[in-house]
Design brief:
5 strands; single chain; 10 helices
């Protein structure tokens, strides 16, 4: 079951962005504020897709929470981030495929998938994965969802007729993964990129009060990254209600410049 090419691609991305600590400063402050508002002090939190941790103040997390579990496919990137920030007492869980489909995706590289293989891929994506952490008070998805979607999209093609179906399955599976990681009554915080400033340049300079209108515009003009529309999240949760989940109002925040997925 070889997924070396996929892991190598993720590692290359992590190495290329490891030095972006300053670029993430504003986003990091916002994310840390939301994390602390979402979980009581001295509780247990799990962060899926920790990566370089440029969006996380690890020393502050270690000081404020009883347990912090950092989960990622690239354990080396997480360990290096812990060392860079001088944090201690954090628990790193390496080699975790958060999509649950990378072995299947690897088998499809370089050839067209059959309808049966796509059915299997979608079923596996919908199931989600079990994080190797004890039940948490808060599970955080730290901007990893678009990376999962990009990997699969690169393999089957962004123009594939079933790409939206697969993206929906991956999104649902990821939400289930996060819900399964929390205790009864726990909370899930899903942070994701939704649109690029290359598509809507005004995002880069907009005031906070202007962001909801820009997000509304992106939703109605279909300028969003495939599979991560806040409106689609609301619709999916209202229809599926996995584990009795209740959605709080999405919080549009300033986005970092990103390469469009399509």
């Amino acid at each position: 079951m070889a997924i070396d090419a996929l892991i190598t691609g993720q590692r290359d991305l992590n190495r290329a962005t490891a030095g972006h600590w300053t670029l993430f400063a504003e986003h990091r402050e916002r994310l840390m504020a939301i994390i602390h508002a979402s979980a009581p002090a001295r509780s247990r939190i799990a962060i899926a897709g920790a990566g370089n941790c440029n969006d996380l103040d690890l020393r502050r997390l270690a000081a404020d929470f009883a347990e912090v579990h950092l989960v990622d496919i690239d354990g080396e990137a997480v360990e290096q981030a812990v060392d860079r920030q001088g944090a201690a007492g954090l628990r790193v869980h390496a080699g975790v495929d958060l999509s649950g489909v990378w072995p299947l995706v690897d088998l499809l590289r370089g050839r067209e998938a059959s309808p049966g293989e796509l059915d299997q891929l979608i079923r596996s994506a919908e199931s989600g994965v079990r994080l190797p952490v004890p039940a948490a008070d808060l599970a955080v998805s730290a901007g990893v969802l678009t990376q999962l979607l990009r990997t699969v999209g690169d393999v089957i093609g962004e123009s594939h007729p079933r790409i939206v179906e697969l993206a929906t399955a991956l999104r649902g599976g990821h939400v289930r993964t996060l819900l399964d990681a929390v205790r009864p009554g726990g909370r899930v915080l899903l942070v994701t990129e939704v649109v690029s400033s290359e598509v809507i340049p005004a995002i880069g300079t907009a005031a906070d009060a202007e962001l909801p209108a820009l997000l509304h515009r992106a939703i109605w003009s279909a300028d969003l990254f495939t599979g991560v529309s806040p409106a689609a999240f609301v619709s999916w949760l209202s229809l599926n209600r996995p584990a009795g989940a209740r959605l709080t109002e999405p919080l549009p925040k300033r986005l970092l410049p990103l390469r469009p997925l399509r």
